[in-house]
Amino acid sequence: MDITKFLSDVVELNAESHQPFKISLPVPSAEITLHRITSTQRWINFDNTSCLLYPKGAHSILKKIINYSGVDYTESELPLNVEQVIPIVEPLYGFFGGYFSSVGFETKKLSEDDLLSWFDEIAGQIIHSKVQLDPHMITLPNRLVVAYKDYDFDINKVQVLDTNRHGISFFISEKFKHFNSDIKNRLWETQISPELSSPYSMIISSTFLKWQRNNRFKNHNPTLIEIFANEYKLYDYFRIKYATDYENRKGG
Questions:
Q1: 78 confidence band (pLDDT: 50, 70, 90)
Q2: Can you name the residues that pair with 43 across neighbouring β-strands?
Q3: In the predicted model, is pLDDT for residue 20 greater than 50?
Q4: What is the count of structural domains for the chain?
Q5: Containing domain of residue 101, as a range?
Q6: CA-to-CA distance for 237 and 6, rounded, in angstroms?
Q7: What angle (nearest 5°) sits at the alpha carbon of residue 213, between those of residues 207 and 218?
Q8: How many other C-beta atoms are found inside a 10 Å radius of the C-beta of residue 89?
Q9: Which of 3, 9, 165, 166 has the most CB atoms around it within 10 Å of its CB?
Q10: Three-class SS of the chain
Q11: Is 109's pLDDT higher than 70?
């Protein structure tokens, strides 16, 4: 199946919602947009698996795990293997993480109150189309269109890696289960390494989650959720698949 047909007919994404760089000022050309996507993502292929690596999709951790395992791998623009792993992250969490990466947040010394106000400001910029997007902020539906361009997409070949639901642990357990204990222990240590376990600092991460679930986030609804409607539809679809596949593997 063509990936765009899957997204529109199966996941039922809205073709008018959140097109690539829709809220970017100025709007770049289609060629620039495509380059921003292709230059920041790739498939990493090893054994019988192809895993999609992209910014804010735990790509640093996954690449480290594969490197430390010692397996032979190749990189490509399209998947080369039947089993295809797609990492997912909560859409606004990933989008704001991309924003922080683009503005160099590490130089800012902000209190929790400062951060909560900053998140309000970013939300307002998104709602009023005043965000200058960079490649870290490209969302998953747009990335998948490129990752499967001119490729026969089959959802039955996809293994979802839910980064918010211990997906990386399951990835290690499933893909490297025949490795000796020393290597597996090193892989476990890699995934919890402080410098890799969060795309931005823990204070920003934890404060953002607090902002997202409290009344200040609700003040921005439904506008933010409408802007990211496609991202949440795909996220929910993949989370259900992840949970279903996990139960099936257990035999439940």
A1: very high
A2: 52, 76
A3: no
A4: 1
A5: 3-250
A6: 12
A7: 120
A8: 21
A9: 3
A10: CCHHHHHHHHCCCCCCCCCCCCCCCCCCCHHHHHHHHHCCCEEEEECCEEEEECCCCCHHHHHHHHHHHCCCCEEECCCCCCEEEEEECCHHHHHHHHHHHHHCHHHCCCCHHHHHHHHHHHHHHHHCCCCCCCHHHCCHHHHHHHHCCCCCCCHHHEEEEECCCCHHHHHHHHHCCCCCHHHHHHHHHHHCCCCCCCCCCHHHHHHHHHHHHCHHHHCCCCHHHHHCHHHHHHHHHHHHHHHHHHHHHHCC
A11: no
Distance CA 219, CA 212 (A): 10
pLDDT for residue 3 is more than 90:
yes
In the structure encoding, which two tokens stand for residue 3, read together?
A: 């990936």
Burial 218-238 (b: 16+ CB within 10 A, else e): eebeeebeebbbbbebbbebb
In this structure, are strands 158-162 and 74-76 parallel, antiparallel, or unpaired? unpaired
Return the pLDDT at 81: 96
First to last CA, the chain: 29
Strands 49-53 and 83-88: parallel
